[in-house]
Write a structure and sequence with these properties.
The protein is α+β, with helices and mostly antiparallel strands. Helix content is about 20%, strand content about 40%. This is Scramblase.
């Protein structure tokens, strides 16, 4: 893939060089839904805080407690189909395909670092870079993506206000790293709240 074709993007969550996550939650039932857009504002998908448990929803509503906040995210494409599921258990996130096939895990490794693992081996990390940004690296330590609250150039002109963050993916990635990077980057704003 040439750099010019990479800049043009492929129109999907896994092929666009820039993913803009809107923090403006849209309520869908009792679940929050966050839009994912390309660099021009075209919808690519959504991240949905999904929770199937009626008891958890009721307790969350009655107690207004984060303890009962949904801990399951669905990453959906522009057609509404689930492409990834992320289930949080304490400081560990299990990432699966829509059908439940395991892809890997994202686990806290300190306060500001997460390790990506698949099939028993480390395939990358997510690290706080300070100043409102996170770097996502492959197993070799090379940065493959970056998530930042700072909008530059055309992105600043297209998206105004502090309710967006941008994920820049530097190269076409392959699985399992591609799915773990997308899962981490798109659930970042919700999973790390209120620190990010």
């Amino acid at each position: 893939m040439t750099s010019s074709s990479r800049q043009a993007g492929g129109g999907t969550l896994f092929t666009e060089p820039f993913l803009v996550v809107s923090r403006r939650a849209r309520l869908s039932g009792m679940a929050n839904e966050f839009a994912v857009l390309d660099q021009h504002g075209k919808p690519l998908g959504a991240v949905v805080e999904a929770d199937r448990s009626a008891l958890r929803k009721t307790l969350r509503t009655l107690t207004n407690s984060d303890r009962f906040r949904p801990h399951c995210f669905e990453v959906r494409d522009s057609g509404g189909s689930v492409v990834l599921k992320v289930r949080a258990h304490d400081s560990r996130f299990l990432v699966t395909r829509a059908d439940g096939t395991p892809i890997g895990a994202i686990a806290a490794d300190g306060r500001t670092r997460f390790t990506f693992s698949a099939r028993g081996r480390t395939v990358g990390t997510l690290q706080d870079r300070g100043g409102g940004g996170y770097g996502l690296t492959g197993a070799s330590g090379t940065e493959v993506a970056r998530a930042t609250k700072t909008l530059h150039g055309a992105l600043r002109e297209t998206f105004t206000g502090g309710d967006h963050y941008v994920v820049e993916v530097f190269a076409q990635l392959t699985d399992p790293l591609a799915s773990l990077v997308i899962a981490a980057a798109l659930t970042l704003g919700t999973a790390l709240r209120p620190t990010w």
